[in-house]
Amino acid sequence: MKNYLYINITDVGDFHSTDNEKDLQLECEIKYKTGIINSRSRNPLDLNLVNTYTPQQNHKFYFLPGVTVPRVKLKSLNSSHGIRVVRDMEEADVIFTGTKTVDTLIDYYWEYNMPTEDLKQWLATAHEKGYIDDYYYHKFETAVEFYTNEDLLISTSTARLVYDKDISFYVKTEDKYRGSERFTFVKDEYIDLYEKIKDKQLCEEDAIYEYINGEDAIEIDKSMYSVLCDMFESSDTDNHLLAMEIMANCDYKKSILHLCYLLHDNRQQIENRRERNHVNFKSMLNYMGVTPGNVYLNKDNMVELMLKKKLFTKEYFFDMCDKFSDEISNYSSEHFKVKLVSSSDQINEFLNEELIHQVKSDYQKTITLEDEFKNTELDII
Predict the structure, then answer these.
(1) This prediction's pTM
(2) Residue ranges covered by each domain of the chain
């Protein structure tokens, strides 16, 4: 995020009617806007985010707007660690940001921008020719005196004037500056908040989700997964609600594989329930990286989620290979690659042997210094 000058130049003379340059009478309005031009970043505020947290005794939490952690579920952390939520950010040991925090703080619209030096030259020429009064020109000079951004924002009326070929000193610039671009900015009511947090370390809210259900939270293992699947398949929709409550109150960390499976297998039943928007269930969905409107996870999504949370294991991989064996055999995947191709039974019978062809090369293990030391003669002795 940068502080941009926003320049609005208007003609209060007759140029718009005559197209005669000598009829120009310019006025200049100057504003400041905090934002970023043409960014598609998931973190346009460029906040300093971490996604891990371990509860500490007597820590104080501050929740930014957009955090959806159920306050009632913090009772277990209060009981076990004396953790509490405070309203003054300066008192907090940890500041949490939510999945909706950025969207709450920012908005966007389409703006023109142009090189700062081009507009400085254009207005200097206009001033020399007497098309803009000293008052407005000196106001602009003061604003740009210590301005360091290469570009500045301009209004539509400014763009029409500076690129108008009926003006002898019109700006000849690259095409990329001719059209408007998305300008993401901090809402006025959150400018002060942004200034307070932009240099602080913030923690993503899902870092505490694995702790909020308490140490006694159940683990959804293979057996419990089967039970919950039966509940989702029941014609009694109350069983669907009960299954969702169990998911919302389980140990997310230990249950992550089977939570993935449940969201994959029971998308329709879950998305048909309005309770998917309940704060407890939404917390679980946030932890799983999905939304109430789309709870589905495919096998690659599952792997990426578990890798991000550093929970992926060899056992999970082989379990997923069994569950998705048909998909892996027939469809390409980012994380499940077919390495060997074997001949069909019909070919085997004809040739009286099975043919195996390797289509993916072997993985070459990275050798570390520790590995090299283990293979030295001293290590053998």
Answers:
(1) 0.69
(2) 1-213, 222-318
Q: In whole angstroms, give the CA distance from residue 75 to residue 364.
A: 49
SS (H, E, C) the chain: CEEEEEEEEEECCCHHHHCCHHHCCEEEEEEEEEEEECCCCCCCCCCEEECCCCCCCCCEEEECCCCCCCHHHHHHHHHHHCCEECCCHHHCCEEEECCCHHHHHEEEEEEEEEEHHHHHHHHHHHHHCCCECHHHHHHHHHHHCCCCCCEEEECHHHHHHHCCCCCCCCCCCCHHHCCCEEEEEECHHHHHHHHHHCCCEEEEHHHCCCCCCCCCCCCCCHHHHHHHHHHHHCCCHHHHHHHHHHHHCCCHHHHHHHHHHHHHHCHHHHHCCHHHHCHHHHHHHHHCCCECCECCCCHHHHHHHHHHCCCCCHHHHHHHHHHCHHHHHHCCCCCCCCCEEECCHHHHHHHCCCCEEECCCCCCCCCCHHHHHHCCHHHHC
Long-range contacts of 376-381 (CB under 8 A, 24+ apart): none
pLDDT tens digit string along 14-51?
A: 998 999 999 999 999 999 888 888 777 777 888 999 98
In angstroms, the CA 284 to CA 268 distance is: 17
Token digits of residue 18 = 């005559």
Cβ partners under 8 Å of residue 154, min gap 6: 6, 7, 8, 9, 111, 112, 113, 114, 119, 162
Q: pLDDT tens digit string along 199-252?
A: 999 999 988 888 888 878 899 999 999 999 999 999 999 999 999 999 999 999
Please tell me the total number of residues recorded for the chain in this structure: 381
